[in-house]
Structure formats: C-alpha cells, structure tokens
Specification:
Elements lengths: L1 H39 L1 E3 L4 E3 L3 H27 L2 H24 L7 H10 L8 H40 L14 H31 L5 H7 L12 E13 L2 H5 L4 H21 L2 E7 L2 E6 L2 H21 L8 E17 L2 E7 L1 H16 L3 E4 H6 L8 E9 L3 E8 L5 H9 L1 H12 L3 H14 L4 H17 L1
Helix pairs in contact: 1-2, 2-3, 3-5, 5-6, 9-10, 14-15, 15-16
C-alpha cells in the first residue's frame, strides 16, 4: 500500500514540477524583455540611488519577483530530489558564487571608476586615499554573513536527520507509531522515511502476532501461573523452573457423571461435560484463580487467596443450580468441591521439546481424598482446617465441623462444611444446630456411638433432609448393632 502511495506521490510531483517549469519560463521571458526599463528607472549618484519607476519598469519588477519565487521553489525541489551530499553542495553554490564575486569586487573596488562603483565606494567609505582597513572590515563582514547563510542552509537541509535519530531511537526501543513516520527533506530522506515506515509496520505486525500468541498461550499457561513463577511471558519459561509458595487448591468434581454418561451418546456426553466446564472455568478466572488440570469431568484450580476459593466455590454451586433449571433435556449436574491450603511447588516439567506447567504437592493428593469424603457424607463444599486458618478474621463464613481425614496413619486433617450454599430457611436451622452436629461428630470420633446417634437423631427431627446427619446417624447405628 505504501509503495503505491509513494508512486502516486512521485507522479503528482513530476506533473506539478512540469507546470512550475513552464510558469518559470513564461515569467523569465518578460522579465528579460522588461529588465532594461527597470535599470533605466534607477539613477546612481555619488551619494544615493534615485528611483523613477513607470508602468513598464513596475511590470518588470513584478515579473522578476514571480520568476525569483518560482525559480526558488524549483531549486528547492531539485535539492530535495537529490541525495544529501549533492543537496548540500548545490545549495551552497549560489551563495558561494555571490560571496566570491563580492570579495573579488571588494578587493578591486579602488581600481574601478564606473558610476556604479563610485556610488558603492561612497556608501562603503572606500577610496584610493584611505587605507585598506575598510576593505578588510567589509571582507570580514561579508565572510561572516556568508558563513551564517551556509550554516543556516546546511542546518535546514540536515534538519530531517534529527527526526531520523528520534524515530530510529524510538523504534529501537520497541515503541511503535500509530501514524506514518514523516521526515521530509531530500530524496535520500524520503527513502529513509519509507524504510522506517516499513520497519514500524513490520514491528506492528509482529507485535500484534505476539499479542495474539500470548492470548492463545494464556489458554494453556495462565498468566497467574506465570505470576507465581515470577515470569512475564512464556518465552521466559525454562525447563526446571520452580518456586514453592503457599496456595489454595480447589477440586471440583461432577457427582455420578459416569452413571449419567451411560444414558447419553458420545456427542451428547461430550457436549454435556463441556457445558459443565464452560460454566465453571470462567468463574475460576473471575475469582483470580487458574485451572491447573482438567481431570476428565473434574477440575483442579489454584488460588493465591483462600477467600477467593471459598467465594468461587459458592459461585460455582449457584451457577450449576441455575444451569440445571434451564437445561431440562439433560441429566442434572451435581458438583462437589473440596478446598485445601498448603505449600505447593509451581514448576515446569517434561523435556526441552515438550514443556508443561504443573503444580506438585501433597495438597493435590489431599484434595482428591477430601473429595471422597465429600461424596461419602453427602456435602457439597468442604474445606480443610489449614484453609480456615488462612482466611482473614474479617471474612464472613458459616461452617460446621464434619470430621477428620487420617493422614499417614497418625496425623489428621480436620474438615469443615460451608453452609452458605444451603437455602436460607435450612441454613438458619443448621446454624442453630451447629453445636449439636459437631458434638455428634466428636462423639463418633471418640467411638461413643450411642451419644452420637442421639445427637444426629435429634437434628433429623428438625432437618430431616440433612444428608451428613443422616449418614452419621446410620454409621453410628451400624456401629452400635455391630458391637451389641
């Protein structure tokens, strides 16, 4: 596109130059013819110059002025059409010729006796009786004027160089221009201007391609993951890069999805799982988390703040409930979420030809074990004591203790259920019965199954559809019948 524009510009320039040449020649002819009337209107005396203009001499002056303007424009265009070195040479030729002639005439002025010379000698106070100091002073003045004119001329011709330097420096730093680069000046600068515009255009294309690549890359390597590693973009990732930080993992699974999928065709099953993932994934990003893995119909997400994971889990459950109501032709989706907090290693594993970002930690393994308990006791959202301890004291959350997960045969991980997702009436009942529920769980852990059964039996009188209480009631009843 730029090539066509420059070609069109050159064609228009050549056409306009031809018109200027014709006009210059037209003005030159009457100027020459009428020049004798101009000179005849000038009368030189020993002290001054008298002017006696008539219509013909005035016409001659007008044509002289027009010719001077047109010729100057043509000469400037000529200078712009040649390279810088030639442009400087031709620009200084006229003033150099005038300077040389002036110095020569000034040096030989004493020996010239024409009327014009007499007037000039009187004006400059130079005569045969005076010493040569006046000639030297006038020569110095002419030389200074000449040097100033040459300096200004060269400065104007070389002015585009400062623009070239500015544009080149900016482009060198990777800062791009939205508009076209404009330098002006001689033909050489026009070529540089075209080259800089081409560089700027290529930079823009590469910059846009890089932005698109980064956007596509973020779909595979989230920017939050890069942030954990202290990197700005994917090109900085190297095999073996790793960092250990405290983080919160969220494991989200689709309950009974295997049984549901048996009733669907392959295409329906694919769309069924994707509809679930399309609902959950944006919510994870909204709460400043990122998805580490898609595990079949499950998602493992990572958050830097535990409160974000808690809020995200509630948003997921509510969004799925809304989706179930609007999607009546497919089986309802039932999600269960397990949240845990601990030290996590963020790193790049694999080989040079195939790098993959991932997280490695016992926290991940615990999340899957917590999910088994979550499913077993019939809860939707559970989180560990480590997550609870990391929550800000001002963070509002309603929860109840649901039991402990035994680790390595000795240590135990206390688990809590988030009650926020229950309907308001049921939630208020569960809050009132929270103490009794937690006592029932502790009695069960202490193997006092009779007291545990009594606690859960009383809870079920007020909230008969409380699944965790129902599970514990049955488990306690089973233990009692076994031991009796």
């Amino acid at each position: 596109m730029n090539k066509y524009f420059i070609l069109l510009q050159n064609i228009c320039m050549r056409t306009s130059t031809k018109i200027l040449i014709i006009l210059t020649i037209i003005s030159f002819i009457p100027m020459i013819i009428l020049s004798k009337y101009v000179f005849s209107s000038l009368t030189l005396t020993t002290k001054t110059i008298d002017f006696d203009f008539n219509p013909l001499s005035i016409s001659g002056l007008v044509f002289s002025l027009i010719f001077t303007i047109l010729f100057s424009i043509l000469y400037i265009r000529f200078l712009k059409s040649i390279k810088l070195s030639k442009s400087i040479f031709f620009a200084t030729i006229p003033v150099t010729i005038y300077y040389a002639v002036g110095i020569y005439l000034l040096a030989d002025l004493k020996n010239i006796n024409t009327e014009t010379a007499k007037v000039v000698k009187t004006a400059l106070n130079i005569n045969s009786t005076t010493n040569s100091y006046n000639n030297i002073l006038w020569s110095i003045l002419f030389t200074i004027i000449y040097l100033l004119i040459v300096f200004v001329t060269i400065a104007m011709i070389c002015k585009p160089l400062s623009k070239v330097q500015k544009y080149a420096h900016r482009l060198g730093d990777g800062r791009l221009y939205d508009d076209e680069v404009k330098i002006g000046g001689s033909k050489q600068f026009k070529e540089i201007e075209y080259s800089l515009n081409k560089i700027n255009y290529n930079y823009k294309e590469k910059d846009n391609l890089l932005k698109k690549t980064n956007l596509e890359t973020q779909k595979f390597i989230p920017k939050q993951f890069l942030k954990f590693l202290g990197k700005n973009n994917i090109s900085e990732l190297e095999l073996g890069n790793q960092v250990q930080k405290k983080a919160t993992t969220l494991f989200c699974d689709m309950n009974s999805s295997t049984n549901m999928s048996k009733t669907l065709s392959l295409e329906e099953n694919f769309n069924y799982i994707n509809s679930y993932l399309h609902t959950v994934s944006p919510l994870i990003r909204r709460y400043d988390g990122f998805i580490d893995k898609y595990m079949g119909d499950g998602i493992l997400a990572v958050f830097s703040k535990p409160q974000n994971a808690i809020e995200c889990s509630l948003a997921i459950v509510r969004a799925i409930e809304i989706k179930n109501k609007s999607q009546k032709d497919l089986p309802n989706i039932d999600v269960r979420i397990s949240i845990n907090t601990g030290e996590v290693i963020f790193g790049i594993v694999g080989e040079e030809e195939r790098k993959s970002p991932t997280i490695i930690s016992d926290v991940v393994n615990l999340a899957s074990k917590m999910e088994e308990i979550n499913k077993y006791i019939g809860t939707k959202i559970i989180f560990s004591k480590e997550t609870l301890n990391e929550l800000p004291s001002s963070f509002p959350i309603i929860y109840r203790y649901t039991g402990s997960l035994t680790l390595d045969g000795q240590n135990q991980l206390s688990l809590f259920e988030n009650l926020e997702y229950y309907p308001k009436q049921k939630r208020e009942k569960l809050i009132k019965l929270k103490g009794k529920f937690e006592r029932g769980v502790r009695y069960y852990n202490e193997k006092d199954y009779l007291k545990s059964k009594e606690c859960f039996e009383e809870i079920l009188k007020y909230v008969p559809d409380d699944k965790p209480s129902y599970i514990y009631f049955n488990k306690a009843s089973g233990k009692i019948s076994t031991t009796s």
